[in-house]
Amino acid sequence: xxxxxxxxxxxxxxxxxxxxxxxxxxxxxxxxxxxxxxxxxxxxxxxxxxxxxxxxxxxxxxxxxxxxxxxxxxxxxxxxxxxxxxxxxxxxxxxxxxxxxxxxxxxxxxxxxxxxxxxxxxxxxxxxxxxxxxxxxxxxxxxxxxxxxxxxxxxxxxxx
Length: 160
What we know:
- With 160 residues, this protein is an alpha/beta fold.
- Helices cover 20% and strands 22% of the residues.
- The strands form 2 sheets. Strands 5-4-3-6-7 form a 5-stranded mixed β-sheet.
- Helix 1 (50-61) links the parallel strand 3 and strand 4 (71-77).
- It is globular, with a radius of gyration of 14 Å.
- The relative contact order is 0.25.
């Protein structure tokens, strides 16, 4: 995977493909296999952060959106304590978490700097079925979770 980006992906940009461990124990989940449905990603760094707790709670309240047919959610953590302390939980269908402990995914998506810096730029990213960016929402803003979820809900459903 390429080095660190200085900013998150821009509108229309293709999302980088990667393989990463997931909370369910898959150590090589191929992200490109998630295409064909809308994807809402949350690069959050650590679920111990109060703003992240609010964002994850907002996502959970709209769990009906994530059916794996029309849409899926992928959270990205770099904090091993999130899994160890059960601060995050997957729900099938539709809600999964990447365990990005080496920050490779976060760097490729502009959420983390190259080592040894520990800066993290949390954000929501809405991807279309072709895994291109349809929306970007900063994590730090309280209404961003609602905006990101509303943008996902506005995506057209898959044709029959």
